[in-house]
């Protein structure tokens, strides 16, 4: 009798459905590992420590935004303005920093802080506007953020006059983009710290559970006492703040600012989030999955560079990747439910 119970337990633990779900739940990690092995064979220099750190540093620029975008998509919304906000943040920081220094109002070391504060304020107001327009007029967030994408892009171009703003930042500012701590690029450290923050937020707090509830069914969440309005304000403002962080690190890395920074990033960021298992329908997704999705797209981008893939072909590959990511995400959801 005891042997029968053990065999029954063994069969239950290793049943076909459980095994299938286990593989599906971790398929992106398996694909990432297979991709790393394949690229390391095709390009042996891929596994060099310098290249790995370079991947992490570059992934950090879009990765911190992807965490915020994950919250937005889980809540059932979308933000297409993130690339333009990256550009605008860097341009505002540079313009104000350089302008205050040249006017003799304050040294450039302090002017950069004022510039960062101004960029942060603009980002918060933008996120608030997105949430307000969504709530007040029930406009799709797709349309709202598509509009602000163009508004911010044009405004950034006007502020910088269509040319890069050079010599606009103090020496300490460069550390934010190219500095290292114990040999690790500072943006990579920020990337990991932000991941821990968002993971804790979504997994361990009531706010995180409210975000999932709103994305799953906003009306049901409202009837259960959850403020859909406040939840949308939070996620919309949070992704904009991540854009400021990325814009600051990006402008610090190249030590200049221009309106073209971040152009087109929104599709790559959304692709990373969806590859990580977040449903475009809302209510489903994890920060861990987004981390893996960001690394997955980062490895592909790095691999194409190492293998000298044509620049225009890279657009084709990135577009196809996003299409198959959405299709694969839909397929996986159906398989889990069967």
Automatic annotation (TrEMBL):
Keywords: Cell membrane, Membrane, Transmembrane, Transmembrane helix. It is a multi-pass membrane protein. The keyword Transmembrane helix applies. Signal peptide: none annotated. GO terms for cellular component: plasma membrane. The chain crosses the membrane at residues 27-47, 113-133, 139-169, 181-201, 273-300, 312-332. It is found in: Cell membrane. GO terms for molecular function: transmembrane transporter activity. This is Ribose ABC transporter permease. It comes from Enterocloster bolteae 90A9. The lineage of its organism: Bacteria, Bacillati, Bacillota, Clostridia, Lachnospirales.
